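Good morning C.,

I know you're traveling, so I'll keep this short. The sequence:
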Amino acid sequence: MKSYYRISELQSTFGLSEADLQYLCTDTEVSFCLYCKTQNIVIGGWSKGKFNGFGSAKYAGLISMTKEQQFELFEKNKISIRCSTLLQKNKILHYSSDYPFSVEIPNGVIQKWFNVTFEQLPFDRASFKNMPFIFYPQERTSMLKDFERFCEEVAAMANPASLKTPKKPNEIELFYSVKTFLLEDVCITSEELENVKAHFSIDVSPSVKFENKVVEVVTQKSLPSTEFKALKASNAKEREYDLNVLIADIVAFNKFITAKEVWSILEEESKLQNSEREFDKYNILKAVVDDELMWESRYGRSGKQKFSSLNTTLSRIKKRTKCV
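The tokens, ready to paste straight into the viewer:
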């Protein structure tokens, strides 16, 4: 088993549809991460909102995302971040504990510098299970101060009498660097993939269980292009997220319905006999236990919907169906 999988592999290898991945992101505690291409970074730690540096290095590997960043990335297909945590210590290269900047400490980015050797990096401590870092800061003058200086010079040209003693050049400062990541950079570790099993029936072997059959994984190389695309389209359609369809049907009757009202309807229908249900035409609702709705898709996939995250799900469905 690989140590991590890219988002494209989750769809092709484990049969998870785009709707499944959206559900995992917004309605479960499953954590995704990002693959970061080779970047210069500064490793350190945060104290009272200030960053303290340990050393600088190059890194190419997995980095973490917050839940809010996951939401933004799956919704907008890209995010911009300036700091994160490293997930793979063995991917750190060319580490140096020397302070690499000409700007004195403290500055607008780094509060203190501790010259920590690579062997001393606290990766194994509980509080530093994942190592914090910032992307390598920029040394430059402030663009805002440069613009202000430009405006003053233009004003002086128009009124030479107002020209005062020439100012010194603006000082070099340190500024955060920001990097952009796309949806295609999303990954999941093998450990987190185990957590997916709590929501979907997946097999981590080189085949995919689907509708109680074992189907060999096919790739674009093993099928003609047209057949491969047709197969992907067919599978995606068959795996449509049934709970979202059910909620959308409820919204269609009342576009102003609240999450609490939707939850009441789902809970009530889960208690009814299959033939008595008004909205649940596929009989996917099973039960509500401790603010969690248990359901099972037409294709045998088990899932959970938390009441705490229903508002997010409902807002997304209303937006998609133009009910907001």
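Safe travels,
E.
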